[in-house]
Amino acid sequence: MQFSELPLNKSILKALTEERYHTPTLVQEKAIPVILKRKDVVVAAQTGTGKTAAFALPIIEQLFDEQDTEKREKKIKALVLSPTRELAQQIEQNFKTYSKYTNLRVTAVYGGVSLEPQKEILKKGVDILIATPGRLIDLHKQGNIELRYLKTFVLDEADLMLDMGFINDVKRIEELCPRKKQTLLFSATIPEKIVELANTTLNNPEKIEISPENATSKNIGQLLYYVPKKNKTDLCLYLLRNTINGRIIIFRRTKFGVDKLEQTLLKNGYKVTSIHGDKTQSLRNEAIENFKNKKATILIATDVAARGIDIVNVDAVINFDLPNIPETYVHRIGRTGRAGKSGIAFSFCSADETSYVKAIQELLQRPIKIIEDQPFPLVKPKHKKQPNTISKHKKGRKSEASKKKKKRWY
Length: 410
Known about the structure:
The protein is built from 17 helices and 14 strands. It has helices spanning 10-18, 26-36, 51-64, 85-98, 115-124, 133-141, 158-163, 167-176, 192-201, 212-215, 232-242, 255-267, 281-292, 303-306, 326-333, 354-364, 400-403; strands at 41-44, 78-81, 106-109, 128-131, 152-155, 182-187, 206-209, 220-226, 248-251, 272-275, 298-301, 316-319, 343-349, 369-370. The strands form two sheets. It has a seven-stranded parallel β-sheet, sandwiched between helices. The chain has a seven-stranded parallel β-sheet with strand order 10-11-9-12-13-8-14, with helices on both faces.
């Protein structure tokens, strides 16, 4: 399927062609026609699958024929709720790119910056608003947000909203919206509380699930290193000196871990920057810009800080600390191998993380290649069997766990 085969206006297709978007991703192919029918949807898909365009394009299409010719008449017709400032900024840019040949006005409001410029933009009229929960509530309290004309409400990265403690704010915002509206919920994972939220806020939604094995690009090589925890930094330095080149994102579990590794790599002469929740917005923006323009070739980040940041041409991802949630692994490695380019993911597993490997492989339904020829091997992983050892599996063979019928989330 091509974008030209979807029921999208020529103005939107022109913008997509200029961006060299020709073939929709799986989530776009499945979600766009359903959203255009004005149905509520729940979409489970990982980072890097094209979720933003999956809801942005049909929203722009729906509003195109109804757009107000005079800016002063504009009212908020679509609201996208985003958990982080970085993600809100990225969504805003995507909407502006796709709608540049329309008369639709798009803006984003978020914390960490002055309220006044955002108030001025809202006064001039907005069709599509992207907002973080706290800033939206603040602006509504001050009388700067009017949602009575809203037609589409999008909850993006709903699981991250849950992790960051925004669910009550989300419910409060939903109550400010008209009852008759289209609601779109997008999430990487669907925990029980997200199911409960969907059941209370959506009307008979269509459910779309992009499985992790389909979400993970075939262009991403995946390598696993069993290593003692005390030697992870040494292994990281060894690989940076001998194996890994280009632009690299390193994931750590904690803010302290990010800072500690950054200092070590700086002392060893690497161009490094970092982001995590304790850094100010200006410092986080500066770090991302330095990484994008290659003033820094290594970005160290926590999962929450990195969510929603769209950086192209990432050559490699290092999972310094393995995530205890398998879907997070898919999120992380999806930072590389984009737009048809190849990438590689290196994962370090210490003795206390071996159960995470098993869970990740069961989710992917395939093993991750173990690299044994390395200077800091962990001699005996704790789990009895190693389903991830390539030599013990025939290509394409699935584990017993994967043969069982997968439990659906709805």
